[in-house]
Every structure is written in C-alpha cells, then in structure tokens.
Amino acid sequence: MTSTLPASSGIDTTLSPARALVCRGCSARYPLAAQHACYECFGPLEVDYDTAALATVTREQIEAGPKNLWRYAGLLPAGQDPAARVTLNPGLTPLVAAPHLAAELGLTAPLWIKDDSANPTHSFKDRVVSVALTAARALGFTRYACASTGNLANSVAAHAARAGAPSVVFIPSDLEQGKVVTTAVYGGDLVAIDGSYDDVNRLCGELVETDEFEDTAFVNVNVRPYYAEGSKTLGYEVAEQLGWRIPAQVVIPMASGELLTKIDKAFSELVEVGLVEAPAGGWRVFGAQSAGCNPIATALHNGSDTIVPVKPTGIAKSLNIGDPAAGLYALEAVRRTGGWMEYADDDEIRSAIRLLARTTGVFAETAGGVTVAVLRKLVESGRLDPAAETVVFNTGEGLKTLDAVAAQVGPTHRIKPSLRAARDAGLLG
Ligand SMILES: *Cc1c(COP(=O)(O)O)cnc(C)c1O
Ligand SMILES: [Zn+2]
Fold it and tell me: Is the pLDDT at 6 greater than 60, yes or no?
C-alpha cells in the first residue's frame, strides 16, 4: 500500500482525465492508486476516464504538442505536467509506406509499417514505461522494477538511469545477449532467474507484496493499469499520421495481448471523443503469435473462451508469455471487429525478418518477424482483405536479436582489394 510512504500528491485529477480504476471483469471501481487486481473478482483493473475531459482535447492542441507521445497527454492517465514526467520522451515513430512489401504479398491497398524500433531503447516498451513510471512517481514510488521478456528490461533500466532512480529488473536467464547487455549497461540491479517469464512474473507478484518492496513500482505488476495505457499512443499516432483516419486493418504482435487491446481502445476513444470518424465498415484487428507460444491464437482457432497456458519455446522470446494476462480481452477485440489471429514458426519468422528488411529497409527483431509472417498467412488464407488499407506494427529492433538471422546472411562476395579481383568477381558487370 502506498499510504505509509512519504507524502505524494497522487494522480492530480485537476490535470488528468483519469477518474478511477475499473475492473474489466465485474466493473467494480477503485481509486487511482497502485492496484492491479479487483478485490471482488480478481479481474484486471483498467483506467477509467471522464469522457467529457477527454473530449476537450483537440487536433490542433495535439499537433502543437511535443514531437513525442506526450502530445497525447490529455488522453493519458498521467504526465500532464512536463516537470513531473519520468521519461525518455518516446513516440512519434515513423509510419513507413511499404509498397514493395505490399506488391510481394499481393496487397493492392496501401500497406504501412509503424516502426516502433525507432524509440529511445528501440522497442514500443518505452511508451508503456514512460506512462507507468510517471504515474508511479506521482503515487510516491522511489524505485522502479519489472518482470521482463527483454525489451521492458531495457526500457525500465534506461528510464531509471535518466531519472536518477534505483532500478531492479527481473528477466529469465536464457534471454538473448542483445537484450541482457542493453539492460545491464544502464546500471541498476539486473536479476536473471532460472525459469520462464511466467516464473519471473509470479516471483515479482510475490515480491511486490513484501515490506522491502513497498517503495517499488513494478511497471507491469502493481502499476499495470497505467502501464497498459501507454500502448494507446501507438493507435493515436497511426491515426494522426494517416491524416486523422483509422486504417481498415491492423496486424499486432501479442505477448500478454495488452498492446492489441489498447490499440483497439485508442481507436474507439478517438471516435468517441470526436477526433476521428470511424472508417466505413469499422476497423479489423488481427493478432500475431509464434508457434512456440500461441495460447491466444489457439483459443480463437478452437472457438474457445478459455486460454490454456503453454510452456513457451522458439526464437520470438519477447513474445514468450505462456499465460497471457490480457488474452481474453485480445480475443474479444479480434472477435468483435471481425479480425483473426495466426502464428508463425521459427523458419517463417526468420524469413519474414529478411523479407521486411529487403522490401522496406526496416530491420525488425523476432517479434516483427512474427507479425510480418502472420500478415503473409492472413493474406494467403483470405482472412485479411488485400484491397483494404493495412498497418503492421513492428515493435522492436533487429540489432537486439541478431542471432535470429546471423547464420543466414553475410557478404555476397569476398575479394582481394584490387580492380582485377572486383572484375573477376563480376562486380563490374
Ligand atoms: C512486449 C512486446 C510485445 C507485446 O506486448 P503485450 O502488450 O504484452 O502483448 C510486442 N512486441 C515486442 C517487441 C515486445 O517487447
Ligand atoms: Zn472485479
């Protein structure tokens, strides 16, 4: 509980449009504190807003704002006061037109890659961490923590370093070196655990209840409702970058499933508060998992409302959450919008990373490979309409998972440093 901590102002509802935490299961309401589960039904809590406060935000205000996610501060639970932010100022990442990829896959309508590898620590996690830690600071927390599949670790450690705050980051011990080094370099405690992400998460759920961690915000545990809201900014940005339009189709990678539900929520909010008109026929949300960790897609394929946890395997480690906290809500969003989910195996992921790189100049991590491989499957199966505008989310950077493709690519020629050698190798045509 935060009540014994040194005085803190809490979430300032004269600035923030947030009003309460509300249970996604039974709709019970709670104050804007550090709480993530419902006392009545143990369901996850979500931030609830004053719609009238959201509706005061205008396009002009947003467009005049900073060139990062804080331009949407009026639609977020915290961060309205710039001086009180804990942030690397992520966001406003490129929306890249992908005509060559579209042609190769047989899409006739515009295809876009929302490239979130351009964030400060090179994944979309900077968005959720900036919002979570800004809320955490307002709630009086002085140390920052997380359970991570890799990218969250990078982002929490870097945010803590920027803020001059201590951090303690928990990861499975088998993570890619590119994710361990890019976390450890920021200093802070980095705890590698011999177990899966789901084991790491369970331990963090126990630690957060101890007196010793009373001062600690675990971004995806005790302040998770605020964390989750950060993902909405990806949806806002896509709409703004398309000239205040919502695309007909979006393809989104899933770990916990939270990102997918929040992009859908962002579109709904934009329509609700009158910033954007819903596209004719609405938008359709598609989810992507790997074959090594596909509990949400499997439930959809089986027509089931129960998500059966799996023990994850495979190279898409950033998506390896075997017991996905927002899985049911991702299922709901995909069913409601008439989308679908697919999964891709490791070979398909590798080949999709190379396809994306070769056709767009974007080098994605394994999660991006999953998403592009799934895009291809959705087009092939006819689930995705090739004649409708589509946005695909690349959520992470290929340099962090080099091993995925390192054995498949390299120099196409190797020659002595002479004109003759260049000619002999056929380089002069
Ligand atoms: C965490 C992560 C995701 C998915 O996040 P969820 O909100 O848990 O579904 C997607 N891509 C990358 C690269 C990630 O690190
Ligand atoms: Zn409840």
Answer: no
Same domain, 339 and 240: yes
The answer on 296 and 177 residing in a single domain is: no
Contact 135, 143 (CB under 8 A): no
Domain of 291, in residue numbers: 95-122+231-406
Task: Tell me the C-alpha distance between 315 and 404, whole Å.
Answer: 7
* Residue nearest (by alpha carbon) to ligand 1 atom 11: 395
Residue 187: which region, alpha, beta or left (left: phi > 0; alpha: psi -120 to 50)?
A: left
Under 8 Å between Cβ of 245 and 276: yes
Taking the centre of ligand 1 as the mean of its atom positions, its distance from the CA of residue 319, in whole angstroms, is 6
Same domain, 73 and 101: no
Same domain (yes/no): 115, 28 = no
CA of 15 to the centre of ligand 2 (A): 27
**Residues 108 and 218 grouped into a single domain:** no
List 342's β-bridge partners, or say none: 288
pLDDT, tens digit (0-9, with 9 covering 90-100), for 69-89 = 999 999 999 999 999 999 999
Give the global pTM. 0.96
CATH number at residue 33: 3.40.50.1100
Q: Which ligand is nearest to the CA of 116?
A: 1
Q: Half-sphere exposure of residue 390, counting CA atoms within 13 Å on the CB side?
A: 29
211 and 256 part of one domain: no
Q: Which of 252, 256, 319 to mutate to test the pocket of ligand 1 (most atoms within 8 A of CB)?
A: 319
Q: Does residue 427 belong to any structural domain of this protein?
A: no
Strands, sheet with 284-290, edge to edge from the N-terminal-most edge strand: 95-97, 111-115, 390-394, 249-253, 284-290, 341-344
Do 101 and 45 reside in the same domain of the chain? Answer: no
